[in-house]
């Protein structure tokens, strides 16, 4: 089937993708095709999450640039900010937390758009970001369909 993704999912409780089977058997997700097009900067330190997000978004005509930590994400944004349509930002990053990355990128471009992904609740995120406007929130763990819905909502 065209809109099918097979992926082995991390069974750790902090994994961003929900799991329903063992790691040894593939999980099949049926995705809703995205109407959005563009470039997404994904700032995520968990390699497996970054790969699955990239796979999902690439299969839906979105180009993904991945940064392993906040400093790398900021450097990429400095170089390519005019081309980046959305920043998909994890909160728990090594070295610099997501809220600081958010503030630094917003300083570079106040019109930058963010989809924040976190295991924290949305209320916690609003408090963490001192009531600053965030375009979208994605609760971890999430499925590829939830990811696409959130991106469509922010970019649509």
Furnish the topology, listing elements before pairings.
Elements: E1 4-7, E2 27-30, E3 38-43, H1 47-58, E4 62-67, H2 70-80, E5 86-90, H3 98-108, E6 114-118, H4 122-128, E7 136-139, H5 144-155
Number of helices: 5
Biggest sheet character: 5 strands, parallel
Radius of gyration: 15 Å
Poorly predicted segments: 1-30
Q: What is the helix content?
A: 25-40%
Major β-sheet strand ordering? 4-3-5-6-7
Helical/strand content category: alpha/beta
Q: Could you spell the SSE succession in H and E letters?
A: EEEHEHEHEHEH
| Distance linking N and C termini | 25 Å
Strand content: 15-25%
Number of distinct beta strands: 7
User: If you average the pLDDT, what whole number results?
Assistant: 82
Shape: globular
Description:
There is one protein chain. By secondary structure, the protein is an alpha/beta fold. Helices cover 34% and strands 22% of the residues. It has helices at 47-58, 70-80, 98-108, 122-128, 144-155, and strands at residues 4-7, 27-30, 38-43, 62-67, 86-90, 114-118, 136-139. The protein has a 5-stranded parallel sheet with strand order 4-3-5-6-7, with helices on both faces. It has a two-stranded antiparallel sheet with strand order 1-2. α4 links the parallel β6 (114-118) and β7 (136-139). The chain is globular and about 35 Å long. Mean pLDDT is 82; it is low at 1-30.
């Amino acid at each position: 089937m065209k809109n099918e993704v097979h992926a082995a999912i991390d069974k750790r409780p902090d994994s961003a993708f929900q799991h329903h089977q063992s790691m040894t058997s593939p999980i099949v997700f049926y995705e809703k095709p995205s109407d959005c097009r563009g470039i997404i900067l994904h700032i995520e330190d968990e390699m497996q999450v970054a790969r699955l997000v990239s796979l999902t978004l690439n299969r839906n005509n979105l180009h993904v640039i991945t940064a392993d930590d906040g400093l790398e994400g900021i450097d990429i944004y400095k170089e390519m900010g005019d081309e980046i349509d959305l920043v998909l930002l994890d909160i728990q990053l090594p070295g610099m937390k997501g809220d600081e990355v958010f503030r630094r990128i917003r300083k570079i471009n106040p019109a930058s758009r963010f989809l924040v992904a976190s295991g924290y609740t949305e209320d916690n995120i609003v408090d963490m970001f001192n009531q600053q406007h965030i375009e979208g929130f994605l609760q971890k763990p999430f499925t590829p369909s939830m990811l696409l819905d959130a991106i469509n909502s922010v970019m649509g």
